[in-house]
Structure formats: C-alpha cells, structure tokens
Amino acid sequence: MPAQICIFDAYGTLFDVAAAARIAAAEPGCGALAAVWPKLAEDWRRKQLEYSWLRAIMGQHVDFWTVTQDALDWALDASGLADAAVHARLLALYWTLGAYAEVPAMLAALKARGFQTAILSNGSPEMLQAAAASAGITDHLDDILSVESVGVFKPDARVYGLVTKRFACTPDRVLFVTSNGWDAAGAADYGFRTAWVNRAGQPVDRLPGKPQHILADLTTIPELAAS
To answer: Among all residues, which ones are annotated catalytic?
Structure first.
C-alpha cells in the first residue's frame, strides 16, 4: 500500500547545513574562515547533534537555536577563530540556508500526486519557518512540526508521535525521509516507512530500526512514496 504522507527532516535533508560556513568563507574579510570552513562546518553540525542528544538524556531541554549557538561556539574554539563578526555572520546565514537543488521540484511532484507533506525537525518553529520561506518551499508543505511541541529532541518516540497525531494516521502510512542514519533508525523503530538520504555514503548505524530505502539524493522520493 502506498504511503499517504511524506515527512521530511529539515537540516541536512532539505536544507544544506554546510551552506552557512561555505558562503561566509567566500566573503571579503573572512580569510581565516576560508582556510578551515569544511572542518568548522563538520564540527558545528556534529556538536549540534551531540548537544541535542546529551540534553535529552540529561533532561535539560533548550530550543534548537540555543543548541546551534553553543555548537558554533565550540566549533569556532576548535578552529582557533575568535572573530565576533564571523560568529554573527554564520548565525545570520543559518536562518537562510538554501535547499538542496532537487528539493523544490521533488516537493512539487509529491503535491501533484496528492501526497500530504510536512517537516518534522529538532529546529525551533521560527528557524524552520524562516528556512522554508528562504528556500521557497513553504507552499509545498502542509505543516512544519517542531520538537518544541513536546520539549525533547529526536529520536525520542514522542517526537515521531507528533506526525501520527497531526495527520490522524497510523505509522505505516508515513514515509519518513532523513539524511541522518540515527533518525532513520528512530523513525523505523517507531513504525514509519523510512528513506535514508545517505549523501556521504556512510555505513548503516547499528541501532534498533533500519532504513527501508537508502538513496543518494531526494530525486526519486515521489516514485518511492507511490510504490
């Protein structure tokens, strides 16, 4: 039976999380960042995720914007950069991350086929709404769901439950799409059909729940959802 609803993680799945560092590194006056931006972008993303998991375990929830700022502080320290202007510029760019090239057409194709679509993300509502608007995909989404509704980060099952509650559906009618292997595992364990967009060619995580589909990008999602 085909899925009825396609749910997407946001950062790294629809939105290019390396874009902020890459764009800033190419701007005048950012020579020090230009030399280290790939490592900084990787560190920033890794710490962003680690802090979300650790805060969930510790029961010390804050919104994702706070986590994002804390992670950037660590990444800048690790790269030996103490430039307030660079710090401010990177944070400003994070609100306007571009979508991957195939995203608008893919979402439009899903809507043309009658699928409901939404984002389910650790991001705060304000961050997600700004990113979707900047990428020009808001009109292709039925909703934007944030973990702030339950006060805990993925992969807590309460987060995935936001989807079944919002769309009044059973988990098996959902195709959940993410670029994070651990997120695919959590969603699969919850009962969603899952597609892992493995752009970096990483091995499958050794966790409960395995992705049903592993893709190089999002191009074939409409066909996969309909199958």
So the answer is: 9
- Residue 39: its pLDDT value, please? 96
Q: Residues with Cβ < 8 Å from 51, sequence gap 6 or more?
A: 67, 70, 71
User: Which residue ranges does the chain devote to CATH 1.10.150.240?
Assistant: 19-94
First to last CA, the chain: 7
d(CA 178, CA 101): 16
User: What's the pLDDT score for residue 29?
Assistant: 81
> Can you tell me the distance from the alpha carbon of 135 to that of 124, in angstroms, rounded to the nearest whole number?
17
Most distant pair of Cα atoms in the chain: their distance: 55
Give the pLDDT confidence score for residue 65 in this predicted structure.
98
- CATH 3.40.50.1000 residue window(s) in the chain: 5-15+97-226
User: With respect to CATH, is domain 19-94 assigned 1.10.10.10?
Assistant: no
- Would you call 178 helix, strand, or coil by DSSP? strand
Rounded Cα distance, 227 and 223, in Å: 6
56 neighbors 156 (Cβ within 8 angstroms): yes
What's the DSSP call for residue 97?
A: P
- Looking at CATH, the fold of the domain delimited by 5-15+97-226 is given as Rossmann fold (3.40.50)
Tokens of 181: 């292997």
Its pTM stands at 0.95
* Cβ proximity of 162 and 150 under 8 Å: yes
Sheet architecture: strand order including 193-197? 143-146, 116-121, 5-8, 174-178, 193-197, 213-215
Tokens of 47: 């710490």
Which stretches of the chain score pLDDT less than 70? 1-2
The span from the CA of 211 to the CA of 227, in Å, is 16
Q: How far apart are CA 202 and CA 169, in angstroms?
A: 31
